[in-house]
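Colleagues,

For the teaching module next term, I've prepared a clean inverse folding example: a structure given as C-alpha cells, and then the sequence designed for it. I'd like students to try predicting residues themselves before seeing the answer, so please don't circulate the second half yet.
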C-alpha cells in the first residue's frame, strides 16, 4: 500500500489518443557547426541524463495502489484508487467508477472528472478504481485472457482468423469477473467511503466486450455499464449466442446501459475504417436487448461522428459519466 500511486503519467493525461502511453525523448547534443568531435571520445551524454535518471516519478495526489491477487488463481494484480478533493471535505459515501485498461482509462477518467466534472456541477464526484493488467504481463496477453468469455481456438472444426494470437490464452472472463466480485469489491468497500450500490463500469474494445459479458451473466455487479466500442465481433459474435441463451432463463434484466462507438468503426475506404462492422454489431446488440422488453433495463446509445477506434474513448467517457452520474448543476461550460 502506498500513499501515492506509482503511475508514470508523463503525457498520459494529455496524450489521450494513445492506448499504450508515450514518452518524451530528447535528442543527443550535436557539435557546433564546422567542429568535429574527437573520434576517440566517449559517446556524448545529455547534460541532464544523471539528474533525469535520479529524479522521482511524478505522483498523483490522493491516489493509492493496492496489490490484490486473485485468491482463486494466485495471479497478481494491482488496484489503483483515486479520491476526489471533495472526499476530504464531507463524510458522505461516494459512487465508484471501475475502469479496465487502467494504464489508459485511469489517468483519462481522473482528468475528465476534474476538468469536465467541474467540482460536481457537471458530473457527480466519484471514487475512481483502475483495474490493472496482470503484474509483469504485457497488456494484450493479459486482456485477451481476462476480458474474453470464450476461446476461439476451442471451437471444433474451425480455424480462427488472424485476429487471434496462438501464443495467448483466451476465455477466462468468468474467472476475472469473479475475482472482481470476490477480491476487489470487498477491499474497496472496506477501505473507502463508497456507496457500493452505485458502481459504474467503464470498458472499451475488449473491455467493452467484458462489460457486456458481465451484464448478461451477473448484471447486478454494477448499477451502470458504459460500454465503449465493444468488440462484439469476438469469436464469431459469441456474445449474441450467450444473450439468446440467457434470455430463455430470465424475465428481467435490471441494468442501465450506455453504448457508444465512433462512426469510423465500420467497414469503408478510409484508413480510419475497420475490417469489421462494429457499428452494426452494437446496433444489433441494442435492438436485441430492447426486443426482450425487460422492465428493468434502461439502454441508450450513440454513434460519434469523426471518431475512430483510437480516438473515441474520451468522448465516450465524458458522455457516459454525464449520463450515469449527472452533477448537481447548473451545468457549466467553463
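(Answer key — instructors only)
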Amino acid at each position: 500500500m502506498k500513499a501515492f500511486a506509482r503511475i508514470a503519467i508523463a503525457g498520459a493525461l494529455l496524450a489521450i489518443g494513445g492506448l499504450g502511453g508515450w514518452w518524451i525523448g530528447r535528442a543527443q547534443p550535436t557539435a557546433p557547426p564546422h567542429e568535429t568531435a574527437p573520434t576517440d571520445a566517449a559517446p556524448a551524454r545529455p547534460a541532464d541524463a544523471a539528474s533525469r535518471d535520479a529524479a522521482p516519478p511524478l505522483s498523483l495526489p490522493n491516489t493509492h495502489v493496492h496489490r490484490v491477487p486473485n485468491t482463486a488463481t494466485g495471479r497478481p494484480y494491482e488496484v489503483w484508487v483515486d479520491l476526489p478533493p471533495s472526499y476530504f471535505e464531507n463524510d458522505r459515501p461516494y459512487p465508484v467508477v471501475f475502469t479496465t485498461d487502467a494504464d489508459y482509462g485511469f489517468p483519462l477518467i481522473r482528468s475528465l472528472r476534474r476538468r469536465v466534472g467541474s467540482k460536481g456541477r457537471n458530473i457527480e464526484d466519484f471514487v475512481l478504481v483502475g483495474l490493472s493488467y496482470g503484474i509483469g504481463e504485457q497488456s494484450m496477453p493479459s486482456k485477451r485472457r481476462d476480458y474474453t468469455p470464450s476461446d476461439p481456438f476451442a471451437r471444433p472444426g474451425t480455424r480462427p482468423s488472424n485476429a487471434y494470437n496462438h501464443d495467448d490464452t483466451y476465455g477466462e472472463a468468468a474467472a476475472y469477473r469473479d475475482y472482481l466480485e470476490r477480491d476487489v469489491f470487498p477491499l474497496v468497500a472496506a477501505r473507502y467511503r463508497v456507496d457500493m450500490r452505485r458502481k459504474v463500469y467503464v470498458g472499451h474494445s475488449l473491455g467493452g466486450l467484458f462489460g457486456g459479458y458481465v451484464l448478461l451473466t451477473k448484471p447486478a455487479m454494477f448499477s451502470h455499464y458504459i460500454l465503449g466500442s465493444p468488440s462484439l465481433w469476438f469469436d464469431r459474435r459469441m456474445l449474441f449466442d450467450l444473450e439468446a441463451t440467457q434470455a430463455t432463463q430470465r424475465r428481467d434484466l435490471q441494468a442501465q446501459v450506455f453504448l457508444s462507438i465512433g462512426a469510423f468503426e465500420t467497414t469503408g475506404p478510409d484508413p480510419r475504417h475497420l475490417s469489421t462492422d462494429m457499428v452494426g454489431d452494437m446496433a444489433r446488440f441494442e435492438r436485441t436487448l430492447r426486443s426482450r422488453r425487460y422492465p428493468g433495463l434502461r439502454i441508450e446509445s450513440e454513434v460519434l461522428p469523426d471518431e475512430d477506434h483510437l480516438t473515441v474513448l474520451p468522448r465516450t467517457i465524458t458522455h457516459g459519466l454525464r449520463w450515469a452520474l449527472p452533477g448537481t448543476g447548473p451545468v457549466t461550460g467553463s
